[in-house]
Design a protein that fits this description.
six-stranded mixed beta sheet; D-amino-acid dehydrogenase/Ca-activated chloride channel family protein
């Protein structure tokens, strides 16, 4: 019996061992299937008889590893603005989600850079700064409003008012018909008196010229050529001097024909040209061109050539035919046409012109002051709006970074020296952003204020001066 029992026990053991060798978790298969190793810091699986292959890493693990980078932090605005914003930055910020994420991480073994970069990957604003960076880089703080030319032809050069050479030319008809009497005095006497009074009220920086035509020869046919071929300058182009100008007015008498076209052409040939030159011609005449010239064509040429002469016509006691011609001359010369019939009309004409100039200066001052103010206000407003917006973003980011850092610090999850370095990086980032936007904002605002004030002051000063002159 004992022998039989031994044989049965032996057979049972052999059968049991054979069955175990067929199970999937037998020792030989386990070594082949589950012998995981780490090569170069990466998880790999080694199959029996084969080279080790990497084990696939989950997206969540990859994101965690990428957040803990040891790369140097961005220290310039362009670099900061190129970084993708954090997953919980801006309007996506959620304090509970942030703290949950922090609780799931281990920071004790991380460097200061790794901790700082991780926090930025969560709540850094990154390229949300790009809009503000681009705005401040391209902002033009200069006042670009073009101040219109004044009634006296003033122009703007940068922030300074440029006074051009203003030339007022009186072209006086000295033909025989101007010797006729009106209201107890000759037309010539009335014209001379009113012209002298008008010029006496002109600004001191105006240059004046007096040219006369028809003062040579007589109305006889024998003197036609002499009278029609001559115009003369009685007062050279220069600042107005009343005594000298009166002497010039007394130096001629009305005697001959009416070479109006030649007088306009001769005058235009002598006038200055250039961007800062203004030529205004006042023609005082009592009749038609009588020398065969084309005054309309002459006026058109003078107005369109380099002198840009503006030709105003004052018709003195004229008939319908003369009025039609002289009005056409004024239109061709880009000027105005007025008629006077007696001494009162003549005086009123110059008074109206004085009032017109006063009103023109008043309108000029108000319009241009407002235009400069509007541009400065609009630019200052846009600048301030963008500054307030970016300041809010900088502040929100800094507060959130500090809160997250404080949570790690109070939880004793950072080493002492790491804690200090992270705080320094957070503070440095805020300082970089604040300094950039503060410095540009202050510089731009100062430029706007200085240029705006300078231009408005210059406009006010010149406008008030000229209105006082014509008052």
């Amino acid at each position: 019996m004992r022998k039989v029992f031994g044989i049965i026990s032996l057979m049972f053991t052999i059968t049991l061992l054979s069955a175990c060798s067929m199970l999937p978790w037998s020792s030989s298969d386990a070594n082949a299937d589950t012998n995981d190793e780490e090569i170069n810091g990466k998880a790999v699986r080694a199959d029996a008889g084969n080279e080790a292959e990497p084990v696939a890493e989950s997206e969540a693990d990859a994101e965690k590893k990428s957040a803990f980078t040891d790369t140097p932090p961005a220290t310039t605005i362009p670099d900061i603005a190129e970084v993708e914003p954090g997953s919980l930055s801006g309007e996506n910020y959620d304090e509970e989600l942030l703290y949950d994420a922090l609780d799931q991480e281990s920071f004790r073994d991380k460097s200061a850079r790794e901790v700082y970069n991780y926090l930025l990957s969560m709540i850094g604003e990154g390229n949300r700064y790009e809009e503000y960076y681009s705005f401040f880089e391209s902002f033009n703080p200069n006042i670009t409003t073009e101040v219109s030319n004044t009634p006296g032809g003033m122009q703007i050069d940068g922030s300074e008012l440029v006074i051009p050479n203003r030339n007022v030319i009186i072209l006086l008809d000295a033909s025989k018909s101007m010797d006729q009497e009106v209201d107890g005095a000759t037309k010539m006497q009335l014209a001379k008196e009113s012209i002298d009074q008008f010029l006496a009220d002109m600004p001191q920086d105006v240059n004046v010229m007096l040219r006369v035509y028809g003062s040579k020869g007589s109305v006889d046919k024998a003197d036609f050529r002499e009278s029609c071929s001559n115009t003369e300058v009685a007062y050279e182009l220069q600042p107005y001097n009343r005594g000298t100008f009166k002497d010039a007015l007394d130096s001629f008498k009305p005697t001959g024909w009416t070479p109006l076209a030649r007088a306009i052409s001769d005058t235009a040939e002598q006038l200055e040209t250039g961007e800062n030159v203004e030529n205004i011609l006042y023609v005082v005449s009592d009749g038609l061109e009588t020398c065969g010239g084309d005054p309309i064509k002459a006026a058109e040429n003078a107005h369109s050539d380099s002198t840009k002469t503006v030709i105003n016509i004052i018709g003195f006691d004229i008939d319908r035919e003369a009025k039609d011609q002289l009005q056409s001359v004024a239109e061709a010369g880009g000027g105005e046409f007025e008629t006077v019939n007696n001494s009162d009309d003549f005086l009123q004409l110059w008074e109206d012109e004085r009032q017109r100039l006063w009103s023109a200066w008043y309108d000029w001052e108000n319009e241009n002051w407002s235009n400069v103010y509007d541009e400065e206000s609009e630019k200052s407003g846009n600048l301030l709006d963008m500054k307030v917006d970016v300041d809010s973003i900088i502040l929100d980011e800094h507060v959130r970074l500090n809160d997250a850092h404080f949570a790690l610090d109070t939880g004793n999850r950072l080493k002492g020296e790491i804690d200090e370095k992270v705080q320094a990086m957070i503070n440095e980032r805020e300082e970089i952003l604040d300094d950039y936007f503060d410095n540009l904002f202050d510089s731009y605002k100062n430029t706007l204020d200085e240029q705006g004030d300078s231009l408005r002051d210059a406009i006010n000063e010149k406008g008030d001066e000229m209105m006082e002159k014509y008052n």
